[in-house]
Every structure is written in C-alpha cells, then in structure tokens.
Amino acid sequence: MKRAFLLALLLALPACSDRAGGNTPPKAPPPVPIAAGPVVQKIVPVQVIAVGNVQAYTSVSIKSRVAGQVVKVHFKEGDDVRRGDVLFTIDPLPFEAAVRQAEATVAKDMANLKQAQATLERDQAQLNNARVQEARYRELLGRELIAREQYDQLKTNFAAMEATVDADRAAVENARASISADQAALDSARLNLSFTTIAAPIDGRAGSVLVQTGNVVKGNDDNPIVVLNQIHPIYLSFSVPEQFLGDIKKYRALGLLKVQARLPNRVEPIATGDLTFINNTVDPGTGTIQLKATFTNADNVLWPGQFLDAVLTLTSQEAIVVPSQAIQPGQKGPYVFVVKDDQTVDSRQVQPGTRLGAETIIVSGLQPGERVVIDGQLRLRPGTKVDVKTQ
Q: Which of 3, 164, 189, 216 could bond 98 through an S-S bridge, CB–CB 3.0 to 4.6 Å?
C-alpha cells in the first residue's frame, strides 16, 4: 500500500513541473510583411522589340566643285540650315575674270559674224548682177552680136563670183560655229562662277566644318567640307527575326503600324513613329529582316547614330498579366508566390510571355482575380503566413 502511494507520487511530479511553466509550446512566428499585386485580364498590345539605330533621313556630303580660296563660312557647326542657305563662298575674282574674257570673245565673234554677213550680202548682189549679164550675153552670142571671147570672159567672172559667194556663206557658218563654241565657254565660265557660292541642297543640321576662312579647297575633292544630316523627319532602323515577317505584312496591310522608340532599359517611350519600310530580302546570314520607322522628331529627341529599343506594335489581344517584379527565377523555371485566402502563400510555376514594361503577360499558371507577391519574396516559402501591406 505504501509502495503504491510512493509510485503514484513520483508519476505526479513531472506533471506538476510542466504545469509550473518549464516546457511551454513555442509561439507561431509573426506574419511576413509583403506587397501583393493583382492578376488581371485585359487588352494588351502584341509587340516585337528589337535594338534599333537612328539614321538621318537624308545625309549630304558638301564638296566644292571648283578650286579656290574660302573667303567666308556663313554658318557655325551644329547650326540648322534651310535649303538654299549659303554655306561657303569661294573667292570669285578669278572666275569673274574668266567670264569677262569669255564675254569678250563672244562679242568679237558676233562682230565677225556681222562682217561676214555683210560681205555675203554684197557679193550676193554682185552675183545676181553677174547672172543677169551672163544671160544677156549668152543671148547676144546666140544671135552673133558679140564675140565669143567677150562672153567667155563674162562667164568666167560669173563663175568666180559664185565661188566667192560660196566662200562668204562658209565664212558666215564658221563665224556662227565660233559663236556657239564661245557661248558654251561663256556658259561654263558662268557656271563655275556660280559654284563659288555653295548653298545647302536640303534642310538639315550641319556637322563639323572641315575648312575655315582662308583655306584653299580643291575642286571635286573626295573629302567633304561639311556634312548635312536631315533629322526632320528621321529614321529608326532595326531588324527582327524573319518569323515575324508574315504577321508584319498581314497587319501592315490593314493600316500603319506604330513604332515606339525607347531608351535602353526604360519603359516610357521617347518618341512614336510609323513603320515605313520593309526590306525586300531577308538577310541569309542572320535570318532577320530590316525595317525602318519614320519619326517627325520635332523636339530633336532622336539623334543620328543613337541606339534605342524599337517597339513595333502589331495588334492588340486579351491576356492575363501580372506585375513584372512578381516573377522569380527558379531551378524549375519562373515561378510566383500566390497569396491564398487564409493569408498564406503558395509557390506556383508560370509560363511568362511578352514583357510590357511594368507588366508581363502570363501564358499559363495563373487565373484572373488571384494575387501575387511583388515585394518580400526572399523571406517566403510555401505555407508562410503573410501580412499584405497596402501599396
């Protein structure tokens, strides 16, 4: 009896110790604070994104067509110039002298022509008189009223006069030919004189000026003296894989396709233009097709040589999208943390599609109305209790 009592007392001691507070169960960890975003279904653009290069709409290398000394540069580097604006003036004095000399030669030949025409008219009159006399004397010879020697002398004079008139006609034609040649030389001299004023052939922006006042330039030299780039409008050239060619042709047939220009790693476009050129061949080396978009560039935001992202919008479609920062890389592929109704999270594999800046299309793995974690993923694992913070 006594032994049974002692045994019962020993068994009761651990229970009493536990109730005294020595082995209380651990408390649950506090919820992890996170930010969440919605999974929504909406109309989104179907886009093709490629790296593009800005190109001048037109680029003209200005060269001097005559040799001479530059006497004035009428613009500064980087100026916007209009078509017809004077850019350079080459010393015109040698060319003005050449024009005056050519004009004098033409005037001299004009005087020679007038003299030759006057001589022709005089000799033509004498020839007409000799013709009348020859006919009269021939009639008198037939009636045996004059001697044969008299008629032969007159006939010889008549033939000589005909030869003289022919020579006069040749002299007139020669004078006219000289005038034509000298007039051509005068036109050439005037043209060369006009080349001493070099004007802008297009509206554009001037680049570096490679000659200054006092420099001597060569005529038709291979090296330009300045390059003008037309930047209003301006091109953005880019290439896309040939697999998109069918869709591009299909949607372009329905109307103009818009192209956005974006700075690298930026979401906001800096300019919007129209697709205006599709190359007539696919590059067999890269399997890409070259495209060009035209931008008005009124605010000069695009610059020749600049590299930008070209975003070509083909059409729009309904799709499921999530905030881009919700998608995490994993060993089995991209995944997201989904916030469940009991305020815990679950890891779910997803198949992302095109990224649209701050949002990404989800091809599979999510349904509209669900919520996904967009901040605080590092402290999460499946089943973690979360506290969703208001954005």
A: 189
Domain ranges of the chain: 28-61+230-391, 64-91+196-223, 93-194
In the numeric block, the tokens 């329905």 are attached to 254
Q: How many CB atoms lie within 10 A of CB 145?
A: 10
371: β partners: 38, 339
CA neighbours within 13 Å on the CB side: how many for 80? Answer: 6
Q: What average pLDDT does the segment 313-334 reach?
A: 92
Mean pLDDT of the chain: 87
Higher-confidence residue of 236 and 145: namely 236
| Residue 264: closest CA among 46, 58, 55, 54 | 54
Pairing of strands 307-323, 258-262: antiparallel
Distance CA 391, CA 389 (A): 6
Question: In angstroms, what is the C-alpha Rg of the chain?
Answer: 49
Fold equal for 28-61+230-391 and 64-91+196-223: no
Rounded to whole angstroms, how far apart are CA atoms 64 and 223? 10
190: its two tokens: 């005037």
- pLDDT of residue 22 exceeding 70, the answer is no
Beta strands in 18-112 (DSSP E): 32-38, 40-62, 68-73, 80-81, 86-90
* Domain spanning 64-91+196-223: CATH 2.102.10.10: no
The pLDDT value given to residue 157: 77
pLDDT attached to residue 2: 45
Cα 53 from chain centroid (whole Å): 9
Least confident segment among 25-29, 166-170, 294-298, 359-363: 25-29
Number of neighbours of residue 81 by Cβ within 10 angstroms: 19
Q: pLDDT tens digits for 121-170?
A: 887 887 787 777 777 767 776 777 767 777 777 778 778 878 888 888 88
CATH homologous superfamily of domain 28-61+230-391?
A: Efflux pump adaptor protein, beta barrel domain (2.40.30.170)
In degrees, to the nearest 5, what angle opens at C-alpha 235 toward C-alphas 232 and 241?
Answer: 165
Reduced to 3 states (helix: H, G, I; strand: E, B; else coil), residue 190 is helix
